[in-house]
Structures are given as structure tokens and as C-alpha cells.
Amino acid sequence: METFLIFMSNNIPAIVGSILLACLAGYIAWRNAKKVRIANAALIYRNSIDPEKFNEFKGHILHNALAQTFPEFKKTVHEFRLYVSIIDRYRLDRAWKEYNGGDEECPDFLVMYCISDNGPLLLKQRLGKLKKIGEIT
Predict the structure, then answer these.
(1) Does the pLDDT value for residue 27 go beyond 90?
(2) 34: CB partners within 8 A, 6+ apart
(3) Closest alpha carbon to 51 in 134, 136, 130, 137
(4) Do the Cβ atoms of 81 and 92 come closer than 8 Å?
(5) Which end of the chain, N or C, is less packed with Cβ atoms under 10 Å?
């Protein structure tokens, strides 16, 4: 036991240095993995938004296309939301509420985008805002 204590007392800087180096390596690995998760979420988010996708649709056909893509888009937005900063999260939430009319469970796309004359333009602008937020990360 005495030899162990002598060994430990003689090598304190080496032991502390080894512990600090292991902590630094763990932090770098964690940070790298976090950046990869953020990049993957941002890529999926950006690919799910295409403002030009709905250009050729009008009326009820546009409504059906929006209603079919909404659940997947909602999931993508909520997943991406976890990885943005607080300020960008506020911007994302505001743009998301503008897009779905504030009703995430049952958005009324027919009234917002399909009946009015400027609906498709409004849809394109709101999807553009959402896409711009995804390009920040």
C-alpha cells in the first residue's frame, strides 16, 4: 500500500493530465456528434420544403396536396426545432404558425391558400420563410 501511495504522489501531474485529456477527447467527440445530428436534421428539413412544389396546383387540388404533405412536414419541423438556437426557434415557431394558421392539429389550408386570389403567392412566401430558417444552420 505504501508503494502505491508513493507512486501516486510522485505522478499526480501525469494522472491529472490523463484525466483532463480524456475529458477533452470526450467533449470533442460529443461536440462532433452533435454537429452531425444538427447537419442531418437541417438537411432533411431543407429538403422537405419546396416553395415551387405547389405552383401548378389550385383550389381543392392544392388543398389536398397540402393536407397530404402536412403530417410529414409537421414531424420534420418539430424534429428540426430541437437543434436551432432560441432566437431561431422563435423565428421558426412564428413562421410555422403563419404557415398553418396557428392550428397545428387541423390547419385550414382551404381558407388560407386555396380560395383567395393571392393564396398561392402567400403560400410561396410562407414556405420561403420556413426554408430560409433552415438555411441558417
Answers:
(1) yes
(2) none
(3) 130
(4) yes
(5) N
